[in-house]
Amino acid sequence: MTINKNNNVNQSEIRKGILRRSFQVVLSLVLIAVLLFLSVGRVNWIFAWLYIAISLLFVIVNYFILPAELIAERGSKKENVEKWDKIISNLIIIPFLALYIVAGLDIRFEWSSNVEILIQFIGIVIFILGMAIVSWAMVSNPYFSTAVRIQYERVHSVSTKGPYKYVRHPGYIGMIIYNIATPLFLGSLWALIPAVLVCVLYIIRTAFEDSTLKNKLDGYKEYTEKVKYRLLPGIW
Fold it and tell me: How does pLDDT run across 186-213, given as a tens digit for each residue?
């Protein structure tokens, strides 16, 4: 009876975590949509709608392919988060939101010379590639959290499958790719400025996270001896 009761409590917590994460993701997409359409001053912006639709599609796909425990963890309140990660995560929010505002204003006031539609479609392809890499990383790593912390309560261990065979932080590669692709997708060259700032902060976060895992996660030092590079094979 005790085991069944504990299992029921655990499943209940997982369901609550999934609901919280679903709300967080939907809310973020709504916020992005509001920023895009308010800044552009109209709703008939097809590439903005396409951007939201593709993002939502990935959300739906991830809901079905990711472990329930991982989704729940990503939606839960985090403990023992690294202090430096709280600072970097808050800093990232500023250029991340600015990206959408600048993109909308750029289209509205035509700051960029007309971006060829071919460039925008290339941006779409690169954006999808980046999102797919992030999804692949999440599927391969059951500890892919939204915050840098050692998940003692989930018996945190090193992930070595999928893209983790080639680089130590493939999720950040995907995030960098889709953030750089977003301005091209939306047809705004000026939005590349905040996008680059987001990517720089992700690179800094990668360096700090890698150092933290070496010091605190059992087996990670040995993993770094096998997988030499953090983000780019042969470079870093």
Answer: 999 999 999 999 999 999 999 999 999 9
Q: What is the CATH topology of the domain spanning 2-226?
A: Four Helix Bundle (Hemerythrin (Met), subunit A) (1.20.120)
Q: Which of 11-20, 175-184, 222-231 has the lowest mean pLDDT?
A: 11-20
User: Distance of alpha carbon 112 from its chain centroid, rounded?
Assistant: 27
* pLDDT at res. 5: 40
Cα 123 to Cα 198: distance, rounded to the nearest angstrom: 17
3-state secondary structure of 185: helix
Count of residues for the chain? 236
Q: Are 48 and 40 in contact (CB under 8 A)?
A: yes
- The domains of the chain are located at 2-226
pLDDT, tens digit, 9 for 90 and up, residues 30-39: 999 999 999 9
Q: Do the Cβ atoms of 197 and 143 come closer than 8 Å?
A: no
pLDDT on residue 4 = 45
According to DSSP, residue 110 is labeled T
Please state the φ and ψ torsions of residue 76, each to the nearest 5 degrees: -90, 165
